[in-house]
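Good morning,

Attaching, inline, the backbone tokens for the sequence recovery test we're adding to the shared suite. The designed sequence is right after.
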């Protein structure tokens, strides 16, 4: 039997380990020298670079409806703190710098979080959904990702059997697992995040069109049962960079060599996708 890590011994040791990481991150942020985006405006920049929408509530066997509703409430609160942010050339967007600490005092409720490879209830749960949505916007733009952490993108079955590459998988935990990107272009961009009912909407806007467009392509997608008896979602996800004028693909980049443990009922895995 493998020896447990200190953080895995008990909830108390997990809390100690997490507090240590939070302190380390505060020190790192103080010393980084990054210029962070700070200005917000209600006026929308004229050009939509990318947009993404999706329902925040997952439904199905074994899914706690209360935690799902709490997740949606957490996302609404976080969206209000980000919406309208301007990222000027040379500036960095940090998810946690704008969302803040996920505590009940700050208005956050218990949603689903991943702790030591298990889905459990935790304050602020569900914000990975928002971080992933922002990441989809960034992948469809010339912004430069400067910090990204992955978790399983097989948290629930694909809705209506339709596979959307990168529909999940971006992990954030206050404050040491952050999601950050930098604007290395010569023009400002604006991040818009808002909710309409149970739907999450997000846009990245700017002042004029960028010279390229972007497209995600997934290859080799399937599920596989491994020697430990667990199923994994496996695929390679690429981003194609396309010249806006000619329509030609000028670059193809591997963005994620996906090997994600399935965290929903194995009976819901489509049989024709198992290899």
């Amino acid at each position: 039997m493998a020896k447990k890590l200190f953080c895995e011994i008990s909830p108390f040791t997990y809390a100690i380990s997490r507090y240590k990481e939070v302190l380390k991150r505060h020190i790192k942020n103080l010393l980084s020298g990054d210029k962070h985006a700070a200005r917000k405006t209600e006026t929308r920049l004229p050009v939509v670079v990318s947009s993404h929408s999706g329902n925040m509530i997952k439904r199905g066997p074994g899914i706690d409806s209360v935690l799902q509703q709490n997740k949606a409430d957490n996302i609404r609160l976080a969206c209000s703190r980000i919406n309208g942010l301007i990222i000027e050339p040379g500036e960095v967007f940090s998810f946690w710098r704008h969302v803040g600490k996920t505590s009940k005092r700050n208005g956050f409720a218990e949603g689903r979080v991943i702790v030591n490879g298990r889905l459990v209830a935790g304050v602020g749960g569900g914000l990975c959904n928002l971080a992933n949505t922002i990441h989809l916007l960034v992948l469809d733009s010339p912004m430069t990702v400067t910090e990204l952490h992955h978790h399983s993108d097989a948290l629930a079955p694909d809705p209506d059997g339709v596979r959307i590459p990168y529909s999940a998988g971006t992990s954030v935990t206050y404050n040491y697992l952050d999601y950050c990107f930098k604007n290395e272009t010569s023009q400002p961009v604006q991040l818009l995040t808002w909710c309409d009912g149970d739907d999450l909407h997000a846009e990245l806007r700017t002042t004029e069109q960028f010279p390229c467009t972007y497209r995600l392509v997934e290859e080799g997608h399937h599920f596989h049962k491994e020697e430990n008896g667990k199923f994994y979602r496996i695929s390679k996800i690429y981003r194609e960079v396309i010249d806006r004028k000619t329509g030609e693909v000028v670059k193809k980049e591997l963005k994620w060599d996906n090997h994600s443990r399935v965290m929903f009922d194995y009976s819901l895995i489509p049989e024709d996708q198992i290899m």
